[in-house]
Amino acid sequence: MRILVFIGFLVLSVLVPVGLAQAQTQPDLAQAELLVRGGKAEEAWKLLSPHEFDLAGREDFDYLLGVAALESGRADRATLVFERVLAVNPDHAAARLDMARAYFALGDFQRARGEFDQVLQHEDTPPAAKQTIERYLAAIEERDPSRRTRITGYAEASIGRDSNINAATSSGSIYVPLFNTNFTLGSSSVKASDNFMSVGGGAELTHVLGGGVSLFAGVDLKQRMHRDWDIYDNRSVDYRAGFQAVHGKDVFRLTVGRNDYDLDQTPYRRIGSLGMELRHAFDARTQIIGFGQVSEIKYLQTGSQSYSSNQIIAGLGLVRSLEGDGNPIVFGSAYFGEDTATRNRGDGDRDIYGARIGYQRSLRDDLDVVASLSAQRSNYLRENPLFMDFRKETQYDLGLGLNWRFQRDWSLKPQLTYTRSDSNFRVYDYDRYELMLTLRKDFR
Fold it and tell me: 98, 127, 146: which is the final residue of a domain?
């Protein structure tokens, strides 16, 4: 008997301190609720948010965290938290009502109406809640984008440094097997670096037809100017139009596009494209994406017309929201395609294979970090007569950037990108660094 008492004492001596330590790390939910009810949502958010990584998935914690996020002006964060509540308890009427309020705050009136309607279907919805919902529905009717056209836009300006503005080799000469000799390259074919500045902007017009279908059209313009090498000044204009259909967990988007690229104030390249994308919400944290695009690429200047081609690309992607502080997100995609030469390109047609991975998280409520890595392999199918070999190359792109939203609709984005083209033809083998700082203003 004494042995059993002794063992019990030892167990309690271990478990009680552990339980007390765990209790000390738990937030006071009752205090958080009082703060929210007292109009101190920001204090409630600061009390609860540090514990999100440990307690995410607990219904009572998540609901209070979501309300604190919504009432403190973090409607986008609130939707993510309420999704966790509803994943655990789809009949949580209060969470669904607050989810609807969050969508309303974000201007997503279609989803807001859907959530409000589900709450109204509950027989035990209190009369006060019904009156609140009716007020929101009336406000949605007044602002419903299906009754008018919505226009959004942005303007931005950038400065930066480019280590290889012409994407050229650093070697001043190359060996040409056909002639068994080295050829000296002109200045335009050798790596050049320069400082640059650019300005740009864009706008998109959207009209909702109803039933989850909307039409859109948009344009983006960017002008880039270099300090010393003005022959590489360029302008790019992108036009797009299409439609989007939303049904349940699926979003389908069809886009017709055109890109006009001018180099040194002279038409250089034109691209026409047709793209399709299907997004499926596999669960509250995961999206699966299928995409495809066909493009007609035309180079207009005499020295580059042979680069013209028709291209077909298809692939799959995944976006996954992870648990943890800062709402981390990982994304990735893989694709393949064919690039068919249309102007007797020396290397002929090519097969394309590529992949991309990335990571994004919030360092603070107003500061995000994004990192990405991509690789694309190109295998050309015709032996090049000058180099007496089949061209093969792999291009790697690494990007790292921050997005600081220092005021409403204003952001500052420092970004570093590195490109490496690893080719068996020396003339296409190069590396490139670009450091850029962009100031952007959004118009909603």
Answer: 146
